[in-house]
What does this fold into?
Amino acid sequence: MIERTGKHIIMTIKEMAAAMKLDSTQMASKSAEIRNHVLEEIARILLSKQEEIFKANEQDLLEAEQNHIPEAVVKRLKFSAQKLADVTQGIENLIALPDKVYETQLVRELDQGLTLVKESCPIGVIGVIFEARPDALVQIAALCIKSGNCAILKGGSETKHTNKILFSLIYQAAIENGLPKNCLYQADTREEISELLSCHESVDLLIPRGSNAFVQYIMNNTKIPVMGHADGICHIYVDRDFDIEKAVPIIIDAKTQYTAACNSVETLLIHKDAVDCLMPKLIKAFQEHHIELRATAEIADKYDSKPAEDEDFATEYLDLILSAKTVSTIDEAVLHINQYGSHHTDCIITEDQRAAEYFMKMVDSAGVYQNCSTRFADGFRYGFGAEVGISTGKIHARGPVGIEGLLTYKYKLYGSGQVVADYASGKKTFHFKDLSQ
Amino acid sequence: MIERTGKHIIMTIKEMAAAMKLDSTQMASKSAEIRNHVLEEIARILLSKQEEIFKANEQDLLEAEQNHIPEAVVKRLKFSAQKLADVTQGIENLIALPDKVYETQLVRELDQGLTLVKESCPIGVIGVIFEARPDALVQIAALCIKSGNCAILKGGSETKHTNKILFSLIYQAAIENGLPKNCLYQADTREEISELLSCHESVDLLIPRGSNAFVQYIMNNTKIPVMGHADGICHIYVDRDFDIEKAVPIIIDAKTQYTAACNSVETLLIHKDAVDCLMPKLIKAFQEHHIELRATAEIADKYDSKPAEDEDFATEYLDLILSAKTVSTIDEAVLHINQYGSHHTDCIITEDQRAAEYFMKMVDSAGVYQNCSTRFADGFRYGFGAEVGISTGKIHARGPVGIEGLLTYKYKLYGSGQVVADYASGKKTFHFKDLSQ
It folds into this structure.
């Protein structure tokens, strides 16, 4: 049972989700002007109340210290003036993006006076469960508002004080500027997550972000469609015809630029003819960056490396460790990636454009790259304005998911009395004419 | 354990699905020319072997008679010369459709020498479980080939003889004309369905067609994404300002043209000011077509009707029965549809264009219609060439699903040595320039 701040309404998550479902068509019908205005107000209020936000954040930092939270987590939960500037800039970018809600995707005259229109529209009610990062709360709420969706938000408990004030400011800006009462809801406790998982009648989509085990748990315990990724085992394949000036910096960046990210590289596949050219320089760079190499015998015997077990190639290290093996052909590399990978992001380093095209066609991943770091797999870097997550599923959205992943479509059919019996009997026939939009 | 006809390979469905998964990138890489040529060969071989097909079908009809299969089912399982002509024409239509596999959806220069390409591609391995209709087997196999997907097909057991010969002809045409060995597989037994449900590591999408209970069973017993619809509770709302010359034929068509279809109407909502104009004519038409009306008191008291219980509004009759109630406002109609409906197809009968637009915006269904029969909700009638099913989900495909619902996309990123560290440090910045395709 939960109490809505300042409202004295006690509702379960299930009741809340049902109320949101009813409000979701109201939310979906709001104009781009209203949605963008709300976003402007959110940016404004966050900046004007920054002292209160930073104070709440200090409380979270203090508790994190008392609870001996790891340094890496503390770094993410700190909400600085710089992070506030980044998120408000992110909101401004979102406002500037063209509106995709109610975009006409097809106009087809089926017969005279019978016109089919395919039009995008919001999905409805979206549940997002995310890590302890205050900036994530703001980004996700902003994306849901921009896309006309109602949202249930559950952030990491380590940022509860910051989340509480951020959410109440965002919610206030939303309802004071025309969005329906149940457009946004913040879940506070871990118990609410399991209740949320049973809300398949009201919640249209769940987006869990977090550890492999956590996302797997969500996927296995709900009937609600889930968008996301459990793990990120990304590969870099160094082809025979490669440029070492590109290869070494890309591998180092993909491993070290943010080691704990899902799009950092975990496995290196090296064409057997490329090993002797690549390894001496690479080993030196690994030593400089304190990267531990675990390689199969043909590499380990010659260069400074621990031996790799089969298990290594199925492991997301999220650490300064990299597995490596040689392959005899590009097909062997493709097969390894499709079997051991997580269909997230995989890269070929090659100067041979035909090899690149072949690799990019045959590797079954959301992102297939040539000659650049796997770390580019990100909604901001793709120019989506923001992302709610990265999907390794192939159904609906794939890869970094921005506004388009939060939309569906409906078919509108405008008739003038048509019945199917006339077409079934052959009295009338369809002429299918696509009209310009 | 199953034996592949003429191949002496005994594999479980799980092993078969894993083999298909490996072949799926080969399948996906076949050119439009190869895929269309295979379709041509399928149409040709089906016509040339029609006597054998009809003979197998007679066997199914004979067994259906012996097993006292209901008349409606027998009608569907009969495979006549007319049905063969229809399906081969359907294949020709598919061949003529523009190829959507590997269609460029976006080309964006992120920075100089760093270009993002979003390209459509097949989903991979699709499992389709469908009713006892031989034409469905041909259509579904053809759609999967056209879209570059591998497919596991399981048809109704009442057509097993017809399915067996149809599948073997289609499979032969497929592998003799360049598709990989494991592009298609036909499952024979009911037990194989439960095995198929556990193949979430190899099967990317399940499309079950059939009864409400069957589809619910599938949805509740697999981790594989499921596309389809459990039920079809479609509504027609007769607004105040309506044309009776349109209303009566549309309601009769939507109820009687194919009563057992998911897109036939189950509930009539009538604006209170429209009742007295509509009902006398409508009651007469109901009597002519033997339609039983179950209405709330304000209608039942005045016109020939049984009383409707609340349960009636949540029931998919699939029979010559129609529930009805009056509403005081269009909002009441919208609320009823969003609460009781199955988000399939709902229609407003009105001459008031503003009311139509409001209804079509606020009703949360895959199809929202004005002044035409709900029976138009169908891939052929939308001009998709064919459909694999109708989706009432909002994730991925919605409404009738043709080729586009069988495709996903991938992001290709072409670089020239770029690393993320340079962008994180501010040394480089993205310039996001969308290029013409």
